[in-house]
Specification:
It is a single chain. By secondary structure, the protein is α+β, with helices and mostly antiparallel strands. The protein is 19% helix and 39% strand. The longest helix has 18 residues, at 226-243. The chain is elongated, with a radius of gyration of 24 Å.
Length: 268
Amino acid sequence: MKKIAFFFLSILILGCNPDIENSTDPEYAQYITGGSIDQEILFMPQEVYSTNEAQEPELKLSLISSENFPCFNYGIASSQFMKGDELIVRFDQIIKYDLCLTAFGPATSIIDLPPMIKKLTFINGNRIDQYSIDITEKSIAISSLNHEFTSSLYENTFRLPENSFAFVCGTNTDNGHIYTDFMALLEQNPAFTEFEFEGEGRIPYPVSSSGNWLNFPSRYFIYDDIEAFYDLATVLNDFTATNIEENSGVTISLNSWNNIHYYSWIDN
């Protein structure tokens, strides 16, 4: 009688254990190896650049551990698989390098995010998290189907519009007019059209300056001709020479979608 009771108890435990159920799921069994990471992983899509040269951004998925490690150069080892329009990411381990950059920080990794995928699946040990993902030219929307060990940092992420740039400016308390003065130059130029990122979501450009006494909200523009943006290097140099005193606490940067930057504190 005790053996029978134990048998039925074992069936009940097996039937209620989601890890065991996932590990025998025929759809994902071939991807499960037993390797795992013992903490929550945060993720978000990003458009990044592979070098400091002018180039179009590449779509990536950033992975970030929820907890800090003693060395901020720890990484997240993962394996990726494509199954139709589904990207499967298996977490293998935390990479701890021999060289420790001694500052606390999360383990991180950046992997490719194919633009055609519709589903995102994470595997950690025997556990499986899944999200639907909608990638368009304007934005990336992520919705959880089921999650236990991962979290999406943003439900919606805006993409960098082609032929766009951001005007980012911060000033001291006594020269805030510099922001409006340079903004007027941009507004008067017929080659530039101001736009806003409509709706909720992470904006891929800086949303404001930082580290200044007055940090103004960034403004965003589309240009008709790349030459018009190139000309802004000279415009900013001349404006800086005429209006910005050295060590006056003013910073202006013009950041283009294709990794071109102009700054008020250097000769562009």
